[in-house]
Design brief:
The chain is of the alpha/beta class. The protein contains 16 helices and 22 strands. A hairpin with a 4-residue loop joins strand 9 (about 150-155) and strand 10 (about 160-165).
């Protein structure tokens, strides 16, 4: 098994023997031109060191920076201005802010949201609050200069706040421009302004995913700014992800029926993993097995119904079977199911199914990366049928309408904002559900039978509340 290590990093030499011990032959390249000379099917690990502000990593540097300031002066740690801070950066800020507050300094930490959630972080947060550190969440922020001081105006969602500080510490990693050259060569989608995004621009700052995750299965990115001098902590999960690439048939793979494909490029535009590409020989699209993440978004949006999943046979066989799509477009599905929905809704009003027997009143589509792992705990005792899906983007109109034939309500539980493993499947699902609600209302049916909720892996209470609300038909 071969793997490419691309870029320049002080961790390169420490990572190579770990990969070698796991059975990987590594090829190190420092430039894009070297990368382009190698086979495209090889997995690639990107390593580009980024620099952190020493004022959030070094106590002596921070003490030196505040030397000469008045004790009453406000010292501000500004997070999330240009990119979401990683849990590592957030913990660094808590550590230094607590230290300076312990020196009787006036400290404020400005942030859009808190991302770290382990018990050690919670303890550091409480310690900082006890020492007098003020935490201010904001939605938007503007910086200016006034008499040698930084003037900060922020909006917290309810009111505008203004503050002045002689020391505003930016808490983010400096970007490595070479990283984007590799990303472009590998056709990896990027986020935000490249002038400020740095490594977060390649992963979207999705701190909650394992080290190495990008939008392409065979391209891994190591956030070296969060390693804290130790690369060993990320080796086990990285090796597991790499080995999956060499285990064919372990995941469902998108398959395009060239006879049905309209060559419209819809799947090409929406695929978050760059797995769909034109097959010029057949004048149709094709899915690259190495890149497909099995999220199902292409299946749900294909207007010709030309895309389905190939899955492995039960253990003991190695052939693929193809799940044939029915060729029905989303628009046709709506037309076909509208009359049936009305009939079944009338039946469900009485709390029984078509057979007259009591059935679960709620169908919940749970994203397997967020809602499904906590569904057993969150939905205990609730009369609901739970179906895991690879991604919220997989949930199509026909899936929801078919579910409404059998259940009072349908709830889609997907990842929280900007947390989708498949880039924006959660947002796509939410919009889909809202469009369906509007259609049902126009047809004279109760739109509150359809709802969605965005949650994280620790939000069991929110999932339970959403399910109970859906059962009552009180969705707004």
């Amino acid at each position: 098994m071969k793997t490419i290590l691309a870029g320049k990093s002080r961790y390169m030499e420490a990572l190579r023997p770990a990969l070698h011990d796991a059975g990987f032959d590594t090829i190190a390249v420092e430039t894009v031109s070297e990368l382009k000379e190698l086979p495209k099917e090889y997995p690639v690990i990107l390593l580009q060191d980024t620099a952190l502000n020493p004022l959030i990593t070094n106590k002596k540097a921070a003490e030196k920076a505040i030397h000469g300031l008045e004790p009453k002066d406000l010292i501000v740690f500004l997070m999330d201005q240009n990119q979401d801070a990683s849990p590592y950066i957030e913990n660094c800020v808590l550590h230094i802010a607590s230290h300076l507050a312990g020196l009787k300094r006036n400290i404020a930490v400005l942030l859009r949201s808190s991302r770290a959630s382990d018990s050690e972080f919670d303890e550091r947060y409480r310690t900082a609050r006890k020492k007098g550190v003020a935490f201010v969440k904001y939605e938007s922020i503007d910086l200016g200069s006034d008499d040698g001081k930084t003037r900060i105006e922020l909006w917290d969602g309810r009111a505008k706040l203004t503050m002045e500080t002689p020391l505003c510490i930016l808490c983010e990693a400096s970007p490595a421009s070479e990283l984007y050259a590799f990303a472009d060569a590998l056709h990896v989608r990027t986020y935000g302004d490249r002038a400020v995004s740095g490594s977060r621009g390649v992963s979207g700052g999705r701190w909650f995913l394992n080290q190495g995750t990008t939008l392409k299965r065979n391209v891994k990115l190591i956030h070296t700014d969060s390693l804290d001098q130790d690369v060993r902590s990320i080796v086990p999960s990285l090796i597991r992800e790499l080995k999956k690439l060499y285990e064919p048939g372990q995941e469902k793979i998108a398959f395009v029926d060239s006879k049905k494909c309209a060559f419209c490029y819809t799947c090409y535009r929406v695929c978050p993993h760059s797995a769909l590409a034109p097959d010029e020989d057949n004048e149709a699209m094709k899915a690259e097995e190495l890149l497909c993440g099995g999220c199902g978004i292409c299946v749900s949006v294909c207007p010709a119904g030309a895309i389905s999943f190939r899955e492995t046979e039960p253990e003991g066989t190695s052939d693929f079977r193809e799940a044939e799509p029915d060729g029905t477009s989303e628009g046709e599905a709506v037309a076909q199911h509208t009359e049936a929905i009305g009939q079944h809704m009338a039946v469900m009003e009485q709390g029984t199914g078509a057979s007259g027997k009591e059935v679960p009143k709620l169908k919940i589509f749970c994203c397997e990366n967020s809602a499904f792992p906590l569904s057993a705990e969150a939905l205990s005792g609730i009369n609901a049928a739970i179906q895991p899906v690879a991604c919220g983007g997989e949930i199509s109109t026909s899936m929801v309408l078919e579910a409404l034939k059998q259940y009072d309500s349908v709830l889609a539980a997907v990842c929280s904002d900007d947390a989708c493993k498949h880039r924006d499947g959660n947002k796509r699902c939410t919009k889909q559900m809202e469009r369906l609600k509007e259609r049902l209302e126009k047809l004279g049916y109760n739109p509150n039978r359809i709802s969605s909720v965005r949650i994280g892996i620790t939000m069991a209470d929110i999932l339970r509340e959403a399910a109970l609300t859906a059962l009552k038909g009180e969705v707004r």
